[in-house]
From TrEMBL:
Protein's UniProt keywords contain Repeat: no
Keywords: Aminotransferase, DNA-binding, Pyridoxal phosphate, Transcription, Transcription regulation, Transferase
GO function terms (MF aspect): DNA binding; DNA-binding transcription factor activity; transaminase activity
Any coiled-coil regions, as ranges: none
SMART domains named among the record's database cross-references: HTH_GNTR
InterPro entries the UniProt entry points to: HTH_trans_reg/aminotransferase, PyrdxlP-dep_Trfase, PyrdxlP-dep_Trfase_major, Tscrpt_reg_HTH_GntR, WH-like_DNA-bd_sf, WH_DNA-bd_sf
HTH gntR-type domain residues: 21-89
Highest taxon above the source species: Bacteria
Official protein name in the record: GntR family transcriptional regulator / MocR family aminotransferase
PROSITE patterns assigned: HTH_GNTR (PS50949)
Family: In the C-terminal section; belongs to the class-I pyridoxal-phosphate-dependent aminotransferase family.
Naturally occurring in which organism (per UniProt): Paenimyroides ummariense
Amino acid sequence: MNSPAEDILQNIISIDKNNTTAVYVQIAQHIINAVQRGYFSVGTLLPGTRSLSNLLKIHRNTAVAVYDELASQGWVEIVPNKGTFVLNPIRQKPIVGNFNELKNEEYPTKTGFNFYESVHLASPYEKVETTYTFNDGQTDIRLHTDKQYNRWYNAALKRTSIIKKWNTFLFDQSSFLNTQLCNYLNATRNLHIAPKNLLTTRSTEMNLYLVAQLLLKPNDVVLVGTLSNFAVNMIFHQAKANIKTIPVDENGLDVSFIKKNFTKNSVRCVYCTPQRHYPTTSSLSAQRRLQLVQLAKEYGFAIIEDDFDFDFQFDATPMPPMASADTNGLIIYLGKVGQALFPAFETGFIVAPVNLITEVKNYYRMIDPQGDLIKEQILAEVIHEGEMHRQVKKKILLYKARRDAMCSALKNTFGDLISFNKPNGGLALFIQFNKPISLVKLSEQISKYNVTLPKHLLYQTKNMCGIRLGFGHLNIDEINHTIEMLKKAYDDLDP
């Protein structure tokens, strides 16, 4: 005859073989539910693992896993040579000891001490509550299949090298990822670097933040484009740099402006995105690139070259980075790889002379001593097996079609009301309204059509009325729809 506990278990537990949830987890969830509903009182002795396996027709190891799972969550206590007993699932409030008189029902809303607030670090990002939204050029997460990435993760977890590296610093200059990424950058960007010239990080923003810690002191002059990336400016502001702007035209930064308005040793660094200027997407001409490098040598400033979307080149062979021809150690080259993969695999990198990389590593050790071992292993294998190259080639064809669809939709819908240049790459374009309107009002109006136009994509000055529109995350039907809604919002303003 079964015990009362066995009768209850037999009646309440059902196992779904088609469920992706592990069998031992399913059983544990049923038992937890039974305890919550009062079927088992505190102290109830549950059947032994052998009895449970016979009762439910499962392997004894599965029964052991069930009780281990329950014990790890605090629902049962396993007493050696006695059995498994149900515990009280209600967690008691901790005893504060002699501090009971200080007890407060509400947690404080403000600190009892002063700290340094950074107004310029307030996030400009908005909560999206509409079906559609524009962004500044992100990839489409819907293009990725979970089966492929599950396979990569499972393979990486089985590597014995992962276990050896765990809990150690990951800054071996001959590491698998550094070696593979070094080969990839040399092949795709015409660089001539060794692993010792390379550091991988979690993002391009982290790249710049680390570099800024080494380069900048308060009031150092940093030159950026008249229109620039807000996140970049936030990092320079945080470093207390003195940010000055350089005019930007269809050929990128106006390098001659530097020589006319600044003197030798008065500029600490120049930040630029030569491949496609952010946000306008105009490329820095070959002549201006040469002028900039020559001026850096003459004036004694560093060049931070940010190549954030190099892999997405549609119409022609991309111009090699300025860093590929740097013989004087003047350029710090930043970028990221893995954009053609699942977003979790995007990885930032810094390329620079060895002495700078060594110092950057010291900073990086403090904030991220372990890194992401699994991601690094997978990314290295993806590059080594040629999968990175294949994924980039496939995505280029798709995103090129989306770029063309966006350009066609804008031209057909707005006509002469706007002007823009078709970018030769990247995942965004920049439009300018030929007749100035209130872009803030446009952003507010389009939300009524279930589309979000984030305010950090708006560029409005006395001489500028433009928007950076990303197209990579939208399919062609979504592109046509959102542009149509943008036109409706524009017409509502009656410019």
